[in-house]
């Protein structure tokens, strides 16, 4: 279990699940969760490479920044979703349809 | 260069940082009515930053902060372009009726933050830096797209933007993580060196990762198939923000693509020997050429069917991204030259077209073609100026748009017979675009009843209109200053020191 491939494999699975979530979910919060999965799969990759590749600190730093940015992004996204809920009384992305398709 | 030495090359960004803080604090002291005065602080800061860029604009080419940022004329060019676009958009925003009744202090502060992010994007040569810069720009533009909190369309634009934006940066990030693993470094130059030693499955992984990264970049310039957010966001966002998004982030998006692809796939950033591109399993130039064809064709064909001028301009901006993408597969300094020239021309004509839409709306009109009926008779000056912008967007001489397109096509044809098809498709697309741009002119002058009264815009509106229209015509006749500026800026940072 303790080798690079395991981690890469798990990251790839996480990435695919995230993609799947973003594409199939209609609830805006669930879509956001899918996006978080994608970001975390990238994080896992960074850390696995940094640990097993014998690389410099860049991987750790990168993951740290990704976590910060994910938090900022989630804050903004949630604010937008709250606003959507106040105006539309729904957070189903299919029901938010004011603009021409 | 180490961190301390770098600071003296970092003045524009330092000035911007101070500007952002000052603008946010100053906004606290303004009442709701005066909040728009924050714009003055931001304007002042931008002008100071531009002066700093101008003073620094020298032949020195180096890296800053231990190889995180490049300091080169190429970056300075895009910084100047961004400052110019931002200043124009701040003036345009003053005239927007959509922002009335909103507290606009944050609006301008956020815009300044976006400028900061774009500065970093234009000069990043490290994946961490690039990711952070792209995220700064994206997150702020999500907020700006949804700035009209009570407006359902603005809400929807923000939601779609945040979902597509976060999704594509997520994919890009995954690509970056794989590239980091393969190269063992986040620096572009180290990645480029490492790429030479890849073989077999590692090369395949690298190709896949590069496609993932292309998704992130393609989203920034709204290239097909990463364009789905564009029409909805552009239609729903406040129009000044639409104008801004269609110009500034798109320009730096191209800067990032040029820098990344030339550095990582190219001969360490110098303009390129085409054979280098063949070392990966995918033919990059052909792939990008096909992308550009799909982008402009889709943009143009869908623009034909729109009833809203704002939405039509959104699709037209997708088409223009396609035209500019045409020059990337040429793999020549001429291609990069053409893109940079086109971006300057595009800035004036596109902002101009959006400003006319904003102005007409603020005068009680709307954004659809029906609202523009008879406009040429009611507001002759606005009608004529809009005609100029439409001519220029189509690319008819003697306008700036023609010069931009001319250089793009010239760079494509110069490559040789294998690229002629691309130029032909581009030309056909320009003809298609003639239809919908001229529909605006037709609606303005040939439909609706001539009105009795003539509305003459206020002096400030006239000033903005002419500030955008005069360059559009002037650079179509005498573009030597722009051409000089672009050719001086064609130096990218090349080798690791």
Overview of this protein structure:
The complex is a heterodimer of chains A (101) and B (497). Chain A has 101 residues and is an all-alpha fold. Chain A has one domain (4-100): Helix Hairpins (Orthogonal Bundle). Helices cover 76% and strands 0% of the residues of chain A. Chain A has helices at 4-24, 28-52, 58-88. Chain A is elongated, with a radius of gyration of 17 Å. The termini of chain A are far apart. Chain B is an all-alpha fold and 497 residues long. Chain B folds into two domains: 1-213 and 230-256, no CATH class; 283-497, no CATH class. Chain B contains 20 helices and two strands. In chain B, strands 1-2 form a two-stranded antiparallel sheet. In chain B, helix 5 packs parallel to helix 11, helix 10 packs across helix 13 and helix 14 (333-362) packs antiparallel against helix 19. Chain B is globular and about 75 Å long. The relative contact order of chain B is 0.10. The mean pLDDT of chain B is 89. Chains A and B meet through helix 1, helix 2 and helix 3 of A and helix 6, helix 7 and helix 10 of B.
Question: Characteristics of this structure?
Answer:
heterodimer, A: 101 residues, mainly alpha, Helix Hairpins, 3 helices, elongated, B: 497 residues, 2 domains, two-stranded antiparallel ribbon, 20 helices, 1% strand, globular
Distance between the termini of chain A: 48 Å
Which shape of chain A, going by the Cα principal axes? elongated
Largest sheet of chain B: 2 strands, antiparallel
Distance between the termini of chain B: 9 Å
Give me the number of helical elements of chain B: 20
In round numbers, the mean pLDDT of chain B is 89
The beta-strand count of chain B equals: 2
Strand content of chain A: under 5%
Question: CATH topology of chain A, which one?
Answer: Helix Hairpins
In sequence order, what are the helices and strands of chain B, one letter per element? HHHEEHHHHHHHHHHHHHHHHH
Broad CATH class of chain A: Mainly Alpha
Tell me roughly what share of residues is in helical segments of chain B. Answer: over 70%
Strand order of the biggest β-sheet of chain B: 1-2
Low-confidence stretches of chain B: none
For the largest interface in this structure, which chains are involved and how many residues does each contribute?
Answer: A-B, 44 and 41 residues
Write down the Rg of chain B: 22 Å
Q: What is the number of helices of chain A?
A: 3
Estimate percent helicity of chain A. over 70%
């Amino acid at each position: 279990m303790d080798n690079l491939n395991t981690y890469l494999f798990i990251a790839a699975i996480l990435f695919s699940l995230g993609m799947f979530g973003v594409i199939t979910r209609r609830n805006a919060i669930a879509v956001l969760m899918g996006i978080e999965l994608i970001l975390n799969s990238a994080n896992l990759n960074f850390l696995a490479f940094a640990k097993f590749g014998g690389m410099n600190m860049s991987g750790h730093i990168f993951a740290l920044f990704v976590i910060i940015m994910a938090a900022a992004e989630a804050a903004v996204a949630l604010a937008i979703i709250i606003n959507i809920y106040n105006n539309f009384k729904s957070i189903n992305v299919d029901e938010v349809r004011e603009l021409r398709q | 260069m180490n961190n301390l030495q770098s600071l003296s090359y970092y003045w524009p960004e330092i000035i911007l940082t101070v500007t952002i803080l000052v603008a946010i604090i100053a906004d606290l002291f303004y009442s709701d009515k005066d909040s728009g005065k924050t714009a003055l602080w931001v304007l002042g800061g931008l002008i100071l930053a531009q002066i700093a860029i101008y003073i620094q604009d020298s032949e020195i080419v180096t890296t800053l902060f231990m190889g995180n940022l490049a300091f080169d004329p190429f970056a300075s060019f895009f910084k100047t372009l961004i400052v110019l676009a931002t200043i124009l958009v701040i003036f345009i925003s003053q005239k927007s009726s959509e922002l009335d009744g909103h507290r606009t202090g944050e609006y301008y502060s956020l815009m300044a933050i976006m400028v900061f992010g774009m500065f970093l994007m234009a000069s990043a040569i490290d994946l961490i830096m690039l990711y952070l810069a792209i995220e700064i720009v994206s997150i702020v533009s999500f907020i700006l797209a949804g700035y009209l909190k009570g407006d359902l369309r603005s809400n929807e634009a923000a939601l779609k933007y945040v979902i597509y934006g976060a999704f594509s940066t997520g994919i890009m990030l995954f690509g970056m993580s794989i590239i980091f693993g393969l190269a063992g470094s986040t620096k572009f130059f180290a990645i480029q060196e490492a790429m030479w030693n890849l073989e077999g499955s590692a090369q395949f992984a690298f190709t896949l990762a590069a496609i993932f990264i292309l998704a992130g970049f393609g989203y920034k310039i709204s290239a097909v198939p990463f364009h789905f957010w564009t029409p909805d966001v552009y239609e729903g966002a406040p129009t000044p923000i639409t104008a801004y998004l269609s110009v500034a982030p798109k320009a730096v998006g191209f800067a990032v693509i040029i820098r990344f692809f030339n550095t990582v796939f190219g001969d360490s950033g110098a303009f390129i020997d085409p054979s280098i591109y063949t070392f990966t399993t995918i033919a990059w130039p052909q792939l990008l050429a096909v992308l550009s064809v799909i982008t402009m064709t889709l943009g143009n064909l869908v623009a034909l069917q729109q009833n809203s001028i704002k939405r039509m301009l959104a699709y037209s901006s997708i088409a223009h991204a396609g035209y500019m993408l045409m020059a990337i597969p040429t793999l020549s300094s001429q291609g990069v030259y053409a893109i940079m020239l086109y971006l300057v021309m595009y800035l004036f004509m596109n902002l101009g077209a959006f400003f006319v839409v904003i102005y007409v709306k603020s005068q009680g009109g709307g954004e659809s073609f029906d609202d523009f009926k008879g406009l040429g008779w009611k507001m002759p000056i606005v009608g004529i100026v809009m005609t100029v912008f439409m001519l220029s967007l189509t690319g008819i001489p003697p306008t700036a748009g023609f010069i931009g397109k001319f250089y793009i096509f010239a760079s494509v044809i110069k490559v040789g017979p294998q690229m002629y098809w691309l130029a032909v498709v581009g030309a056909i697309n320009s003809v298609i675009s003639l239809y919908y741009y001229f529909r605006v002119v037709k609606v303005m002058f040939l439909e609706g009843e001539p009105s009795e009264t003539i509305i003459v815009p206020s002096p400030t509106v006239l000033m903005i209109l002419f500030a955008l229209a005069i360059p559009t015509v002037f650079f179509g006749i005498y573009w030597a200053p722009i051409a000089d500026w672009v050719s001086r800026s064609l130096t990218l940072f090349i080798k690791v020191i």
